[in-house]
């Protein structure tokens, strides 16, 4: 977004299109870029338009979207709640339904929201609907077998596939060219933060409500959880998205702080964990559960690196944060190398299985991505490139994660005979 604004700083029509496509992202990028545009009348006009007399946390109706937006959010929340209650309405086993379809409670309504906001063409919308329907049909067509590794892998990778489709909707239907995956990562981080706040608030309200009714002798716990809690949790993502869109500064100031706080914690934790692993004599080469935990840790830290890169000042002025991200990526690269070598060892000793193939592919992809990010961060530190190049590296690899997740979901069951 920063580069697009800078490129079109004298083009009023193009700036208007950028603004309407992503208002919160445009405002954040423009305000960061504004000091670099002295004497530009168009930039001055935009600054006044975006910031003059605006109470960011105003409680007025205008600060909470248009009536059409609020109506859309209510309708989408009700639709998500309806999907969540399908097992009860259609007498479907919850053990069958939720592992396969939990992603479809959230993804379609969020994709519809961004398709509506970004004025995506009906041709692109039709393709998105086709992909969603095909994914839903396929995952529910897989044979029910709780011991099937390919079924479990498909269910685990399906949210990642749906997340990538959501990213395309967020980017106005664009997948590669013109897609701003860095902004999408920033939105994802803000969505997680706001959803967490809403869940905490809802949990407190639930505890108080159930407690108050118990005082008058009414036990509403089962009813409350079956209807209010399930429906409320289904609505959280769309409500959180709406809040981050209409009140961008509500979370945008919190997310960078979270990234700065947890990045050093993750770095220290990783180093201590590696040392403790050596002292304890634990080995991912022979302990399968330990290898699973090792890879889970790796995925978590990778997500934190992505989030931190998205929330770091793109001007590159925060050198300390960049050094921290470089060290974190270097240590995570070491962890990834150990995990990858352990997977290769287990394959050479006991053969290829669906789980080992999935972990092998994911580790190879993450290893290449971490190495690429590390090179870009080192270039930033040596002042050979800007931090925006690190963000661009995410645009290169995130579609590859999507392709890999689709491979695991749709091809692994067929390749390995539903084992």
TrEMBL record:
The chain crosses the membrane at residues 96-115, 127-144, 150-170, 191-212, 224-245, 257-278, 290-310, 322-345, 357-375, 387-416. The keyword Transmembrane helix applies. Keywords: Membrane, Transmembrane, Transmembrane helix. Signal peptide: none annotated. This is DUF4153 domain-containing protein. It comes from Dyadobacter endophyticus.
